[in-house]
Design brief:
about 230 residues
């Protein structure tokens, strides 16, 4: 999102721009309880002005050395294999908090679309926005997928509520540049996910086929065909 305006500032002029995201919009909201937070925002808060505080810098370096040590990594690996190294779970949200956070995530996403579409009109490019699929929208799971989904069970409720909010969004429904792929594997019974959001080669091929069709369709809109994509 930030990289595109920077490229425009530097003179780059695409004709067609694809945004493939969504998962980070959801996962970045969970640790802070705030929508539109950037990924790993907690790290940036911890590192803010770190060079101005020798004590804070020394503490951060010591912690980083410990976490990167061979012994620490080995212990983590053993813990994960033993089933005790699951992803750290944010605190559970009440139903009203959950719905509010999901609504905030979708509102923030819609705002991003509007910002980029404004830039597109000003700089002559057409954007395509794709909400990527995740394991929480695939009801027919193979054993491996079920295991991976269980690791991130704490995120399931938020993802499912976000899916519901995406479907109910009038702004997204009326936006021809938006494509929701969250349910693309809803009827698929074979292995499609390597974890809660990364997909197999088979799944990638299916996603790519849909994206190419949408990009070609979008490229036909407006005067002439685009000379470049990004």
């Amino acid at each position: 999102m930030i990289a595109r305006p920077r490229e425009l500032q530097q003179g780059y002029r695409p004709d067609l721009v694809l945004f493939y995201d969504g998962v980070n919009d959801a996962t970045s909201a969970l640790p802070t309880g705030q929508p539109t937070a950037t990924t790993n925002e907690v790290n940036r808060v911890r590192e803010f002005n770190i060079l101005q505080s020798p004590a804070r810098l020394a503490s951060a370096l010591a912690g980083n050395l410990i976490q990167n040590s061979a012994l620490f990594r080995f212990a983590g690996s053993v813990g994960r294999r033993a089933g005790v190294g699951r992803v750290k779970e944010p605190k559970a949200l009440a139903e009203t908090e959950l719905v509010g956070l999901a609504m905030g995530v979708v509102r923030g996403y819609v705002a991003n679309l509007e910002l980029v579409e404004g830039l597109g009109k000003a700089y002559g490019f057409r954007p395509v926005f794709v909400w990527q699929p995740d394991i929480f929208s695939k009801p027919k799971l193979v054993a491996f997928e079920a295991e991976e989904q269980a690791k991130y069970g704490w995120a399931s409720s938020l993802f499912k509520e976000i899916h519901r909010q995406l479907e109910q969004s009038d702004a997204l429904a009326s936006d021809p540049g938006f494509l929701n792929l969250s349910g693309i594997f809803s009827e698929t019974e074979s292995l499609q996910f390597l974890d809660f959001c990364h997909t197999t080669e088979e799944a990638n091929a299916r996603i790519a086929s849909v994206l190419v069709s949408r990009l070609l369709e979008t490229a036909k809109v407006g005067p002439g065909a685009p000379a470049s994509m990004h």
